[in-house]
Amino acid sequence: MTKKITKGSGNVFKDLGFENPSEYQAKADLALQIIRNIADRKLTQKQAAKLISATQPDISKLKGGQLKGFTLDRLFSFLLKLDLSIEIRVTKPRSKLKQGLLETVEV
Predict the structure, then answer these.
(1) Which of 8, 25, 50, 69 is the most exposed place for a label (fewest CB within 10 A)?
(2) Quick one: pLDDT at residue 63?
(3) Does residue 95 belong to any structural domain of this protein?
């Protein structure tokens, strides 16, 4: 039996056909950093919310990956309030990602 395996583009949101997949990926990456930092500090959701000027339900949503309603600016603000540095790097996309091509291989 031969199985087809499709290699993803590196952005699950693109592979699933989301509109604005790069923005979704950026938000997911930022939310992960926020949640990791909160966990590393052993903060409760209530303590974290107070520290970053958010609400406890906001922290719960971030932790659950519910990013609707969170702008990139707001997530940047949370990172800064956690005393984290932000670096932005702009690069040209790899040609396959630019064209949206997925590679399929037979196994």
Answers:
(1) 69
(2) 95
(3) no
Q: Which residues of 62-98 are buried (b: 16+ CB within 10 A; e: fewer)?
A: beeeebeebeeebbeebbeebeeeeeeeeeeeeeeee
Residue (of 63, 64, 60, 76) closest to 26 by Cα position: 76
Q: What is the pLDDT of residues 11-53, one digit of tens each?
A: 888 999 989 999 999 999 999 999 999 999 999 999 999 999 9
In the chain, how many domains are there? Answer: 1
Asked if residue 95 has pLDDT above 80, the reply is no
**Domain boundaries, position 55:** 18-90
> CA-to-CA distance for 61 and 58, rounded, in angstroms?
5
Residues 81-91: tens digit of each pLDDT: 999 999 988 88
CATH code of the domain covering residue 46:
1.10.260.40
